[in-house]
Amino acid sequence: MAKKYAALLRGINVGGSKKVPMAELRSVLEGLGHGDVQTYLQSGNAVFTSTEKDPTVLARELEAAIEDHFGFPVPCLVTDGAYLRAVAGACPFPAAELEGKQLHATFLSEQPGAERFAAIDREAYLPEEYRLGDRVIYLYTPNGLGRSDLAPVLLRPSVLKGIDATSRNWNTVVKLVELTRG
Question: Between 22-31 and 55-70, two packed helices, what is the crossing angle to 10 degrees?
Fold first, then answer.
């Protein structure tokens, strides 16, 4: 039985580099045999169905197909709708009271240990805050991610070495939850 997945591509269509037109991304996903392919925004969000049960296998296949088609590597995280609903449901911040640009989820390819974040002085970045979840960092940035002092610290190689990470604002998280239902 086919299951709905979301693919989150990192670092495409930003500043004129790594151009991945969404129509071509849909074609790449369809070429891998996936069904019901949709894309959301231009920032690398796709939803599709597949009979493959392992999201990691799906991510590696998509990465290889993207590199073959476009000629450059793009890290991809693939997750199912149940995980996205769990992420949304476990949000430690009052999502309904915040603007979508103020709340972000940084999705991670694996769970980091809390010790990786021990050197970050949380007080120094207030009112910005973060919380660790299940393979996700919830990030509250009152002035938006682009003006955040905390976000670059959380994404440093010394913190996330060996872990692929990609961030989405809360509006996108909510939309991906909706698109992966059923």
Answer: 120
